[in-house]
Structure formats: C-alpha cells, structure tokens
Amino acid sequence: MRGNADVRTTGYGTEPPLQRFLASCHQEFKSDNSGELADYIPELKRANPAHFGISLVTIDGHVYEVGDSAAPFTIQSVSKAFVFALALDLVGEARVASAIGVEPSGEAFNSIRLTNDNKPFNPMVNAGAIACSGLIHEVDGRAAFERIRDKLGQFAGRELDVDDAVHASETATGNRNRAIAWLLRNYLVLQDGVDAVLDIYFRQCAILVTARDLAVMAATLANRGVNPVTGVQVVTPHVVARTLSVMTSSGMYDYAGEWIYRVGMPAKSGVGGGIVAALPSQLGLGTFSPLLDGHFNSVRGLKVCEALSARFDLHMLNRSGDVRTCIIADYDIFGITSRRSRQPHEQQILDDRHSDTRVIELVGALNFASIDYVTRRLSSEPPGAPLLILDFHRVPDITAAGAQLLAEKIATLGNSGVTTIISGVETTSPVWATIRAQIEEPKRLRHFPLLDDAVEWAEDQLIYRYGGFTETKETAHLSEQALLADLAPEETAALAELSTPRRYDAGQRIVVAGEPANSLFFLQSGMVSVKLPSGVRLASLGPGMEFGEMAIIESHRSADVWADTPVKCLELPIDSFADYRQLHPQISMKIMRNLSALLARRLILANAKVDLLSAY
Ligand SMILES: NC(=O)CC[C@H](N)C(=O)O
Questions:
Q1: Distance between CA atoms of 421 and 90, rounded to whole angstroms?
Q2: Is the ipTM of this structure higher than 0.90?
Q3: Binding site for substrate: what residues are annotated?
Q4: Which of 51, 131, 526, 565 is 20 to 30 A away from residue 274, measured at CA?
Q5: Reaction(s) catalyzed by this protein (predicted)?
C-alpha cells in the first residue's frame, strides 16, 4: 500500500499549475551558484548563499511559496520603492518633486552624480532614497523611522523588525552614503540633521523581510494600493501609479532598460538579495537569493522573474483584451420583463412599448477603453429608448477614467431626455462610489441595487406614461383570477364558499418556504412578493393573481410569500380544492389548463433570459 505522500504526489496534481511552475523554477535555478554575496556591508557577508525563496501573491490574496520563502533577510534598496510611496503620501507629489527627479540615471545605485539642477536623478538610487528619508524626517523628526517601519509593515501585512547587526555594520562603513548625504545637504536637498537622516536610511535598509513579505508588498502595489491579504488600503492608486512608474524606469538601476525590455514588470532589487516585481491588476512577486550579479541584482531572483514573464507572456505592455467583451447582454424588455406580474392591460402596454426600455449588462473590470466602447455603441445608434438600464452586477471594478467617460455620457443622454438607471451595485460598493464621484448633478439618473428592481421601475414609468395606472384594479373578484379563467359564475361561487377570507399587514409573511403546502390563495387587493429564503425576489403579484398555487402539484412550499402592502385574499384549502375538482372533472380540466398556461409563461420568461445571456 503506497503511503499517503505517494498517493498525493502521484495523484491528479491537486496543486495549481502556477505552484508547480514556481517549484520547477526553484528546482532549476537553485543549482546556479554564480554571483557574489554583497561584502561592502560586512554583515551581509554572513548570508547563506544557498538560500533561495520564491513567493507570488495574487490580487485576490492567494499566496504561493516555494523554497526559503520564509527566510529573513534585510530589505535594503527594495525599501526605497515603498518609502518613496510613503513620501508621496505624506508630503505630496510637489514637495517630493522639488527634492528628487524621476529620470533613470543609467548608473549604479551608489552613484554620487546628481542632475544638472543638483537633485538626485530618482528615488531608486541611494541619493534619491536618502533624500526621501529626509522628507519623512522633515515631518516626523526622530519618529520618522517608526513611520517608515509601520508603513512597510502595512505593505507586508505584518509588523517588521530590524536587523541591528546589519544596521550597525552599515553605519560603521557607509561613508559613501555619508558623502552623498552631505552633498545633498550642500545643495539643500537635505535640511539639517544629516546624521539623523542617514541613520533613518541605514535603519530602513536593515528592516527584515522574507520573500513572502516582498510578494505581499508587491501585490499591494499591483492591487491599486490595497493589501490583498489584509484588505488594508495602504496608499492611494495615484501614489501606486507613480511608484510603479519609477520602479519601471529605474528600479533595476543600470540594468533597468534590459529589465523592462525582457521582463516587463515594475521591479526593485536590493543587495540583501531581494527582488520585488509587480504586475498591475494581476500579481506581486517576491524572490530572495543573496548571490548578486555585477549590477548588484540577485542572480536567481532575476531568472525567476524572467522565466515567469517569458513562460506566461506577462510583459505589462502585452495587454490583450477586446473591449467589446465588456457587454454581456444588450436587449429591450420584450419578453424579459421584471418579476412583477402585471395585470393584462399593463402587460399590453409593456408589450407595445418594450423598445422604450433598453438594458445593457456589463461584465469585467471596466476601464477607459471599455467604457469608451460602451459610449460609442450608445452614440452610434439613433436616439432610442428613453429609459436606459446599465447593469454592473458582474463588474468588480471601474477606473476613475472609465467612470468619467460614463458620467459624461449619462449627462449627454439626460440632456436628450434619456433617463439612465444604474443597477447591480450597492450604494456601499467601490464601483458605485467611483461612478458617483464623477457625476456632478444626478439629473435623470436612478440607481437600484438589483437589476430586477430597475426593470420594474422602468416598467412602472411606461405603464404610468401610457395610462396604465388609471385602469389598475385596486381589488379583483374571484372570477378575474387567471387560474379560474373560463369558470362559470356559479363554479367560482362554489369555490368562494370553500375559501376563507384572510387579511395581512404590510411586511407580514403569509407563506413560509419548506412548510407543508396545504392551501392556495386568491389575491383580492394589495401586493405580495414571492421570495427565496435568501431574499431573492421571484415574483411580485397584484390583485387578480394567485399564489401558493403550486400546492396543487407540490407537497411543500418552495418559497416565502410576503405582504408588500395590506393584503386581502381568499385562502382555499388544497384538500377542499381537490375534492371539488374530483366532483367537477370538467372544471378541474379548465383549472389545470390555466395552471399549465401560467407555468408555461413563467418558463418562456425564464428561457428568454437564459437564451439572452447564453447568446453573448
Ligand atoms: N542596492 C541596495 O540595496 C543598496 C542599499 C544599501 N543600504 C546602500 O545604501 O548601499
């Protein structure tokens, strides 16, 4: 009998393919012992050259780990990307730009060269990073390091410690950085307190992380500043975009050009052996191996990044995607009405005026290009339906740019008499917040969390607009019940004799899902809703309609029925109804035919919706 381990490893490969790929990278590259440990900071020579960890975190928070992904090492220059993000967050873009450029220098990380206006080229080289730490120091003074440590901890999703030995070692030998710092002081990029700023910088470089931490930090950048593991919004999407931009152009120093050409992901390396790479809206990658190449980048880490990008064609400029796929359904309400059952004259209006309500159901993360396509599609057709429903219940995200285009289109439509109804998003959802933020005056804009409620509201507008409500029956006689169509007056009178009048208050539950189905109801006045226990509405019924009628063929209730308003109805016990039908087989035939017609109409409605969605 093979052991469990054998069965598990020789099973159907329960591991996700990406886990297997990362493990194969680790297996292939761990034997590459080229490169050298960093030795200009003596303590770094104590690193274990065999250490090799890989971690990848997805923007929905899944963490892949292989090898020494939990081995701690000092973050070193990887910290620069996150401290730059913190500086943008803390003192604002203008202040940062006044002290630090964003141009690649094409030189090594410890280059002393400054720009023609005596500023560091960018925040990824030591000069720029020391200037960044100086900006935090200007605000916090001695508390600056704690703010840095706390922010990097938010990116990693846990509290981070410092390797005091590495901090002491770099403090003792960091004379080149001292020269850079005093040069910055000379040009007033740094203010007073140069030694304090240097100590902040040395301490931030000595913060201990793991490959897993780096992957979470990178994934936070990939996820518009939200840590996908903790859910914390660490920095704004605006700050993320600027941070990733500088990582793209300068994160790998004088290897940056080759890096973007070959790998195509914003990245940052460190002499401790770490590399982070972030693929926006997809993933964050963290690798650790302390053997460095001539550019002071981790040899094995580079290979992992290059292999991942090449194998899955992940270059960030290789953006596929057909904007037209953002529309999953585009239809009017002919045959696809809401779940509110309408009285015959109301339904006639909807059948006649179905083209007055258009529904477009959207899908996927929407952006500038996809919303532009939606607006062009709306513009390319003649002015059509006065009621336009845009449903977002399959849309997890929309960018501000997309929302801006949408808002402008809604305003234009409003000016031409079209009311736009947005459905499928709660008022608390980020998608609604992004859209609403772009709409100055919500003229001719309505919002419903559920598409069905939006369609019902639009139907009500049409019925009202074409005089339907003037004929709406407040009460209905038993003879008008759809289930009893074609029965003679004395036949319905006999059924009324067998029924009991009932009254219910608004909000009262009349029928309970799962209970025995031992009666059916004829609605005389008021409105009721048929709902699943989950709260999903299946139908809303008005006077002249029946509910609980499935008791004729089912033993237990399949849904709840709630009184939306005060309700008057007749309750007919199913046994009495069965006895009556047994005594009057002809009548029974009529009733069963009516029931079949009712069920057929519901089936047609359901099929139309399924057909519509499967057609896209
Ligand atoms: N590239 C690096 O990781 C350099 C960081 C190191 N603390 C230094 O300033 O030299």
A1: 39
A2: yes
A3: 77, 126, 170, 177, 201, 253, 271
A4: 131
A5: L-glutamine + H2O = L-glutamate + NH4(+)
